[in-house]
Structures are given as structure tokens and as C-alpha cells.
User: What shape does this take?
Amino acid sequence: MGRRKRLAQTQSGAEGMHSLPALLHRNATQFGDAPAYREKDFGIWQCWSWAEAAREIRAIALGFLELGVEKGDHIAVIGRNRPAHYWSMVAAQMVGAVPVPLYQDSVAEEMAYVLDHCGAKYVVAADQEQVDKVIEIQEKVHRIKHILYTDKRGMRKYDHSQMNALEDIMAEGSAGHARFDAELDKRIAAITYDDTCVMLYTSGTTGKPKGVVLSNRNVIESAKNSAEFDHLTRDEDILSYLPMAWVGDFIFSVGQAYWCGFCVNCPESADTMMTDLREIGPTYFFAPPRVFETQLTNVMIRMEDAGRLKQRMFHHFMAHAKRVGGLLLDGKPVGFGDKLKYALGNLLVYGPLKDTLGYGRFRVGYTAGEAIGPEIFDFYRSLGINLKQLYGQTEATVFITVQPDGEVRADTVGVPAPDVELKIDDSGEIHYRSPGVFVEYYNNPDSTASTKDAEGWVATGDAGFIEEGSGHLRIIDRAKDVGKMADGSMFAPKYVENKLKFYPDILEVVLFGNGKDRCVAFINIDLTAVGNWAERNNVAYASYQELAGHPLVLETIRDHVEEVNKSVAADEMLSGCQVHRFVVLHKELDADDGEMTRTRKVRRGFVEDKFSDIIAALYDGSGSISTTTEVTYEDGRKGSISATLEIMDAPVVATAQHKVAAE
Amino acid sequence: MLDNSQGYVTEDGRKIGGVVMEMKNITLRFGGVVAIKDISFDIREGEIRAIIGPNGAGKSSMLNVISGFYVPQEGEVWFHGSKRPPMRPYEVAQQGIARTFQNIALFEGMSVLDNVMTGRLSFMKTNILQQVWWKGKAEAEETENRAAVEKIIDFLEIQHIRKTPVSRLPYGLKKRVELARALAAEPKLLLLDEPMAGMNVEEKEDMSRFILDVNDEFGTTIALIEHDMGVVMDLSDRVVVMDYGKKIGDGTPDEVRNNQEVIDAYLGVSHD
Assistant: This one.
């Protein structure tokens, strides 16, 4: 009840707010003392209230005016999640500029493309490493006028004629506020609902990245709808650790945070994320399946090291949680005895475990981006963690479908989000229309036209169907990845890949077989899980490559493939997608080598070309293949690794005939 | 250029100051074994000074003389313009000299944070009773020193292992923790005994970057021993080369590289 009332309060103040600076002003005046940002620095959580944040952001905006930023200029922001970087984005909006967050791990070449494409005149870069990249790029991209950096370390020796520390610009702006105040207020007042709020580059599994233009309307409407859907209030705490260039982070850490007025917590560094997660204990959380998988793997590894009593307690109560935990969370009827036992388990196991994981205060959270293993999903839900799935895109300002409380399942992605219309066309491709639908791809009318039609419907590029009865959406695969085998049966690689990836030993899988008579696969092992196994079994290894080629590892992977084949064979439509032969790759697929996107989606076509020799060997029946592969180091240098890979045959289940997909 | 008592300017434009420490005709014997034979050289303010040489050349002994752990039988050590009498290790530390060790000497059972905190020992003035009572003076002191330590943890990017016991860390990180502990003492002169020994290429690169950053950011004078020639030549401003306890070369990396005696020592020429 209290929560509902609070929500009503928050919204009444936000109605009619047409920009993030306007929402910032509301937050700073209505609950200025409430925490807005925290960042762990020098081992201590530093905190800024909304009023303080508003002052900092205004100082940056004044600094921008002092530098001569004009309306419509693009300001790139490159760095990890830090308050100063979020502030720079909002400050850019204040002066009528367009913030463009970039992936901080992009190599110089990728960065050059984006900076050139958006014509950024100003760059806010985190530190020396990022500044070096921008300087390198400047030889090709000439429009960059000024670089601002947030971390002063190592910057003393640089030529500062076109460069400043962000804090110096803030001080200069503040000192000259009398000159700029009127201009800044005028620019803030001039922002309309349809002005550009942010531009985000989609990594794209094919081709060059595209700049998705999102308006204030897109961002604020999406934030509002999703906040209402999950009853988010200004008491939430979130941990902002996902790339700032990714639309999800912008919506959670900026859109929803400003709409609801909740607190954004930034970890100390990427490596401390798990510790910081535990210290903050977010109430609202978002993570790709990988984070949950890693945590579960760690829990299991540590339980194996625990004492006998603890182990027995853990397994006993987890079995009980598996039976009733999910039902309790969904509000389904559960017997009194079971409830009592669950309460006891909560006291002894679930509570302490949730606290260790950092989910002690977890109220609602999402996983998206990739399919999550049903067992992983159920593990968290059985602990009473309200983890749900959603389906979204940058072009939709995240939300297309979401799972409502009480209707959460591992195999669907939920019902259309508020104000979203959904339709499936004849080919099975999912289309949607919503207030979050993007304005356009920047400087790319052709792509805009081929994605969004005149009525505002957007093609997702994903194939799926709406389940009868529940109305939930189920995704089959990327529409263009779905193909046909030589005999006409359906080829849906993701379905098989996900089944394999649910094994902790397997990190990544790429299935091939479109147009062929049988399927073959590339497999990446998970170094953490397999490395731990190796340690326990006294298997010595010096490198990833060596471990990946170990006969015992290959044997284990073959067992996994065999089991998956059995389960795939049971599916009438997809029984043709069983894996006949596979190879465990000698290197991890990596975004730096272009094999994956920055959001870690496999670029199928690229991988197929790059490793064509291995694929040929998989099909021609040879027992092993020697290959040399180019790799890119962190600083952009190229090198190569050679290996002889053993090709494994996997047992398949014979099926009398598979049903032809087209009906 | 090097004769200028006011210092010199390095290739990358750093200004090197006057002499901080001068070794005058040092000879060190262990019984009948002569470890160091009549060696003289100086270390200037703000420079990175390397001591190199083949195995058994007497490099570590030299470092121990600089740190005051060994007292040479002959010769004088001048520090900041005055002759240094034989000292106890803590007195040396108080003078602003800190060091790391060739084979890591950390407290294995303690966390990284506690290990680095021990580097602050000479800044702690409260007595044992005050520390037992803790409230008040000892607490304020700990807070103050913790803040200094956190700056170093941030600087060396070891936040993620702050609470990890040292025994659980890989070798490369232990080396970095040792550097952190030495830095916690806010040394004016930092002695590094083979900071890259046993590291892979990537770890060496990281460590080199940190050493340069320490020198650049805090202005710390650094004397290091190393036998990875590539690393030494890239890092240091001036190099002393030792062989069989004798100094066979002294100068900039380029000068040393072209010194015939040094080439002989490294490539191996028969000694009579």
C-alpha cells in the first residue's frame, strides 16, 4: 500500500516533464536530499544527492557553453559507468547537444567509424587510454574540436591546447556563470518532447553500426510505462555496471532513474563488480544471463569446498526450494507444511545465500539479450528472487515484451509491454509499434525505411510466435538465421546452441548446417568452469588452447552433445539439427577479432568466413585440421595462433523422417 | 651533460635534479669473498637508475648496501649531502627509503589491505595501549593512513583484491602488492629488487607502466635491479653495469649498450 501511494506521488510531479533536465530539476527541488548517485572511490561509497547532482550537471553544462558547444552538436562519451559520465550526457542535453555514449572497449578503428559518422565535435573520455585512442583517431576524423577527460592520471604531459580535464571545464563554467546562466536557461527551456535525447550505436551482427536516434518522448514514455509496470519508486537502488553505450543502461540508469528519482550506484572498477553488488544490494537489477550463470557456477564450486553438514543442508533445502519456491513467488497456493519448511530454509540457506550474492534486497530484476538456461532461471526464482525476462531492442527503447509478476517462465519472453502493439507477419517475423519506436537511423534513410514502415511498425528481424492461451511471445531465432536443411527440414541454430550453452562447461556454440544434409558445430569451453574441473582432477594445462584440446575435455563435451542430440531429436520440427560432428575451438570468440558484437552476440557470417577451413574439415570427414588464426591484441596489434584441432564425431539419434517445416 | 651538478634533462623531457645518494668507493666482503669491489656511482633526484649485470655480479648486495642492510667494509654512502653512519633498518625507512624484494616478502596470511597498511608503520605514532582502546587517537590515525593507502590501491589498480589474503594471489599481483606496500611508506627513494623476475610479457608491461607512473606522478627516485635487458633499457635514465663485483659501465642506456666491456660480460668472454 505504502509503495503504491509513494508511486502516485512521484508521478504527479513528473507529468508533463518533457526532458531529462526538466526531470532533474523536479528531483532536485522536490526531494533534493535523497541520494541520486553513489560511486565507490578510494574504498568508500561517495554519495551525491539530487540537489548536488543537479549542481554538478549544471557546472558541466556551463563548461560546455564556455567551450562553445552549439545546439545539435554531438558529444561522445567514452568510459565506464561513472557519475561524471552520466552527468556529461545530461549536461549535453541541457545545452541542446546530443550525447553519444560509446563502448569503452572498442578498438580505435571501430571508434573512428562512429565518431566520424556522428561528426562528434567534443569527446568526454574517461582516462589516458581512451584519450590515446581518440588522438590516434584524430588523424582520420578531423571534426573533433576538444577532448575532455575525467581521470587526470598520466595526462600532465599531453598538449592541452585542445584538451582539458572535465573538472577544470566545470570550474571555468561555474566561474563564468554570470555570462552563461541566461543562455543555459534559455536552451533548457527550448528542449521539446521530440528533440533528440540520445544517440546509441547498435553493434549489429552484420555490417557497420547504425546510430539509433531516440527522442525525449521515446525515452520518457518508455521509462514511465516500464516504471509503472513494475511499480518502481524512488526508493530503488540499482547497480550500473553494463556498458553505457547499451540502450538498457541508458534506460535504467538515466531514463527510469530520472523518472522515478531512484539512486544509481557505480562500481569501483569492472573487477570489483561482484563485491560492490553485495555491498549495495540493489532492489532493481538487470543482467545478461552470463552474469547469473557465472554466479551460479561460483556458488556450486564453493559449495563443493564446503563442509559435509553445510553441503547436506544446502542440497536438502535447495531441493525443497525447487519444488515450492517458484510457486510461492508466483503467489500460487502452497501447503502450510511446505511454507513452514521454506521459511526455515530461508533462515538457514536462502537468506544467507541471497545476501552473499548481493540479492538480499532484490525486488524485481530482468535478464535479457540471450536465452537463459531454464535451470539457472529456476534456481534464482526458487530462492525467492523475482527474476523475469524481457524482450527488447535499441530501436524500441528497450521494451517490446515483458513478463508480468506471476506469469514468469523460462521459455517465453512475456506479453507486450504497456502501449506496445505486436504482430507476426506471414514469414514469422515479429513486428511492433510503440511510443518507444526510434526516430530514425542517423544519416541513413535507407536503413530507416527498410526497418520502419510508414505506419510506424518496426521489423525486429527475429522470428517468433505468440503462444496460444497465455498470449506470451516465444522467440525462435534471428529471422535471417533460420534456414532449411538440404532435405527441407527447418534449421534454427539458436535452439540447439542454447541447449548446449546451458551446460556450465560450454561458453559459446556456433551451429552450421543451412542448406547442408547435416549439422556441425564450433564450441568454446568456459575457462572458469573447465579450469576448476581441471584443478580438481589434477589435469595440468598452460593455456586456454591446451585445455580446450585436452582429450578428457573433448570427451565431456561429446557427452553433452550426445545428450543435446537426444533432446533435439525429440522435437519433430528440429530433429534435423542434431550435431553430427563438432570441434572445440582453440580460441575464444572475441569482439576484438570481430567474431562477436560488443554485446557478445556471435556474428555468424563472419565466423563462417574466417574459419571456413575448419568447417570444410568438419564436412569432409577428416579427423583433424591444422589451422592458423589471426588474433587482435588489446592495443590493436595483430598476431596469429596456430593449432591442430581434433574433430569429434558425436552420436546422433536416428529419426524415421523429420517433419518438413513449411506446412 | 651528466657532470652538471644541477642535474640534466632526459630524452622525454623530464628534469632530473641533483645527487640524492652517492656511493663512494664501496667494497663489501663476506669473509674471503669480495662481493663488491671499489664501486662508485650516484643516484639523482627524480631519475630511474638501474643496476644490471649477470648472475652473481653483486647487484643485490649493492642494493642492500644502498638500503643500509649491509655495511660495507670500505667506502662511504652519502645521502642528501651527508655521510650516512651505519643504521638500523627502521632508521633507513624513516629517512625515506623503501624497497621490494626479489623473492616476495609479504605477510601471506594477511589481506592485501593489511599488508599495504604495514607500509604506513612509520606514520603511526599511537602506542599499544591507545591502539587497544582504539577510540579517539588511534581511530583517527587509522582513518588517515587508510586514506593514504586507498590512494595507492587505486593507483596500482588492485581494488578488486583489497580484502583477499595474499597467499591466494598469483605471482604477478603479489609483486604489485609489494610495490604498493613500499609506496605506502611515501619513499623519496624506492629500491626495486628484480621487479619483473618471473613475469610474463603482459605482466612485465603492466609493471613497467606502473614504475614509470610512480616516477612521473609522485616524483619518486627509483633504483632498480633487473636482468631483463629490454625492460631496463626502456625504463631507466641511467644504468650501472656490474660484473664480478666490479663496475664495468655507467651511463645512459645507449652508452651502456655500446660499451665493449658490457657486451663482453653479457655475451661471455673468458675471464682469467
Remarks:
- Residues 130 and 176 of chain B are 32 Å apart (CA to CA).
- The two ends of chain B are 36 Å apart (CA to CA).
